[in-house]
Automatic annotation (TrEMBL):
<dbReference type="GO" id="GO:0005681">
    <property type="term" value="C:spliceosomal complex"/>
</dbReference>
<dbReference type="GO" id="GO:0003723">
    <property type="term" value="F:RNA binding"/>
</dbReference>
<keyword id="KW-0747">Spliceosome</keyword>
<keyword id="KW-0508">mRNA splicing</keyword>
<keyword id="KW-0694">RNA-binding</keyword>
<keyword id="KW-0539">Nucleus</keyword>
<dbReference type="InterPro" id="IPR010920">
    <property type="entry name" value="LSM_dom_sf"/>
</dbReference>
<keyword id="KW-0507">mRNA processing</keyword>
<dbReference type="InterPro" id="IPR040002">
    <property type="entry name" value="Sm-like_LSM3"/>
</dbReference>
<dbReference type="InterPro" id="IPR034105">
    <property type="entry name" value="Lsm3"/>
</dbReference>
<dbReference type="GO" id="GO:0120115">
    <property type="term" value="C:Lsm2-8 complex"/>
</dbReference>
<protein>
    <recommendedName>
        <fullName>U6 snRNA-associated Sm-like protein LSm3</fullName>
    </recommendedName>
</protein>
<dbReference type="InterPro" id="IPR047575">
    <property type="entry name" value="Sm"/>
</dbReference>
<dbReference type="InterPro" id="IPR001163">
    <property type="entry name" value="Sm_dom_euk/arc"/>
</dbReference>
<dbReference type="Pfam" id="PF01423">
    <property type="entry name" value="LSM"/>
</dbReference>
<keyword id="KW-0687">Ribonucleoprotein</keyword>
<comment type="similarity">
    <text>Belongs to the snRNP Sm proteins family.</text>
</comment>
Length: 141
């Protein structure tokens, strides 16, 4: 199955009611969520224990998260998919780029952009976190 646009991927989520084909990470293998039986899906979805670091990311699926990237960029958006490299697909994303100039007069400038859907390459990810309390007030579910 191939896609020509992010809109087609978004439609898949809407049609199935589930995030599209994301991978759940286990200690030594990948599991394709779309190929699991209903019992396996429910046991994976409802497991709230954190046994390894990637479990924290798994528990954030379909939730708003905060992602700090290299080059002074921060993202806030809904996590639709991820893999073991922390490549991610986020929806309803706000990007904040902070530019700091250190001259005679030091100043900080923030540029903001929004995207309906965004792919993030994992090698630029520094930190992944649930949004802070302030973020949840600004961006309610």
């Amino acid at each position: 199955m191939s896609f020509t646009s992010f809109a087609e991927i978004s439609d898949l989520k809407t049609l199935s009611g589930q995030p599209f084909g994301y991978l759940l990470i286990t200690s030594k293998q990948f599991e394709n969520f779309n190929e699991m039986t209903e019992d396996e899906k429910s046991s994976k979805q409802h497991s709230t224990t954190v046994e390894e670091p990637m479990d924290l990311v798994r528990l954030s699926l379909d939730e708003r998260i905060f992602v700090k990237l290299r080059s002074n960029r921060e993202l806030r958006g809904r996590l639709h998919a991820y893999d073991q490299h922390l490549n991610m697909v986020l929806g309803d994303v706000e990007e904040i780029e902070t530019i700091v100039e250190i001259d005679d007069e030091t100043y900080e400038e923030k540029n903001t952009r929004t995207f309906p859907m965004l792919f993030i390459r994992g090698d630029g990810v520094i930190l992944v976190s649930p949004p802070t309390e302030t973020d949840t007030k600004i961006y309610p579910e």
